[in-house]
Specification:
alpha+beta, 8 helices, 3 domains
Length: about 375
């Protein structure tokens, strides 16, 4: 009968945010035990109160005081016991989870970011537990990313440094001739190293919010054409909609985005045609760079904007697209890629048209 009662009607003490009836029968006891303990405590407190009164009366009668009124001390003690009996379950229900939270916080402070709390207790305490677990998960993710970044930076710096060290040792030992060709190869490696350091510094600025955008009114058609001309490649074709509006942007940063996308397209297109298409809608200016290269595998496509990510055929530091994404997002735009193996790749980014009316020179930290 009692099970049928639970099946038909939610008890008044059951949490409003949890389904009834529960899939686990043991949940009924876990959620109802506080009420059960409270009732036992009241019975115990009442029994103890009556015992105190009886003992006080008995002592008074043994001392010959048959008409002694009930001791005020006994009344106070009895009432205190009843109050404590009523509050004990609530104190236990709140105090134990709070103690667990303090203990877990100390473990996180010691660097154990895998610490998690069991979410139990009153709703307010459970919400604190959920917030704590969410915080610990974010800290664990950030710590893992920091460790991975340090390992990736060390790996990327090690390669050019090893080449430079090996070349210089070879020159000193007489293994390599001390001529311009050998020195030129060492110089090329220093340029690679310098470019990697610059990319790391730029990446750090964009991800820490310290990047300054020096915005000014820019003719977008002229900017794109200048970037295309700087490559001096006849395989790049620029197609633009008429009357492309000027935008208030950091021209140097957007030029770097375009240069990065064109460099990647030229690297993989094997002198096949590359097309840049620009156009506008009501809110955005969009620029697409399309190549006829081998394309990107489906499993690699969602990761190409991750820092240091390189596919099986990729070359370079793996930072170019990450920096391009950060520059575009700093302007309030978005960037994405579409590709299929053996059918080329199209990378598109957008910039908001709301910037087209600003003509002032601005320096905005992002």
């Amino acid at each position: 009968m009692r099970h049928r009662h639970y099946e038909q009607r939610r008890p008044p003490w059951w949490p409003a945010g949890e389904a009834w009836p529960p899939a686990d029968r043991a949940q009924i006891w876990r959620h109802g035990r506080a009420r059960f303990v409270r009732r036992i405590a009241i019975i115990f407190a009442a029994t103890l109160f009556l015992s105190v009164i009886g003992a006080s009366t008995l002592v008074s009668r043994l001392m010959g005081n048959t008409n002694v009124p009930l001791s005020p001390v006994a009344i106070a003690v009895g009432l205190l016991i009843i109050v404590l009996g009523l509050l004990l379950p609530a104190i236990r229900r709140v105090g134990l989870p709070l103690g667990n939270i303090v203990e877990a916080a100390n473990r996180v402070a010691d660097g154990d970011f895998s610490t998690r709390l069991a979410e139990h207790g009153p709703p307010s305490v459970r919400s604190v537990g959920r917030a704590f677990n969410s915080m610990a998960a974010r800290l664990e993710t950030q710590d893992r990313q920091r460790r991975n970044l340090m390992a990736e930076v060390a790996h990327e710096l090690r390669t050019p440094l090893s080449v430079i060290q090996g070349r210089l040792e070879g020159l000193l030992d007489g293994v390599y001739a001390r001529d311009d060709a050998q020195i030129s190869e060492v110089l090329d490696e220093t340029r690679i190293l310098s470019r990697l350091v610059d990319d790391l510094r730029t990446l750090a600025d964009t991800e820490s919010g310290m990047l300054s955008l020096k915005k000014e009114s820019t003719d977008m058609r002229m900017l794109i054409q200048d970037v295309v001309d700087s490559f001096g490649s006849a395989s790049i074709h620029f197609e633009s909609s008429p009357n492309l509006p000027p935008l208030n942007i950091d021209a140097l940063r957007i030029r770097e985005v375009l240069s990065n996308l064109l460099s990647n397209a030229l690297r993989y297109s094997a002198r096949q045609p590359i097309t840049i298409v620009s156009g506008t809608d009501k809110e955005h200016l969009s620029i697409s760079v399309a190549d006829c290269g081998p394309g990107i595998a489906a499993e690699d496509l969602p990761k190409i904007f991750d820092r240091f990510y390189r596919g099986s055929t990729s070359r370079g530091s793996g930072l170019g697209l990450t920096i391009a994404r950060n520059f575009v997002e700093a302007h309030g735009g978005t960037i994405w890629a579409e590709s299929q193996p053996d059918h080329g790749t199209v990378v598109t980014f957008t910039l908001p048209l709301k910037e087209r009316y600003g003509n002032e020179h601005s320096e905005n930290p992002t």
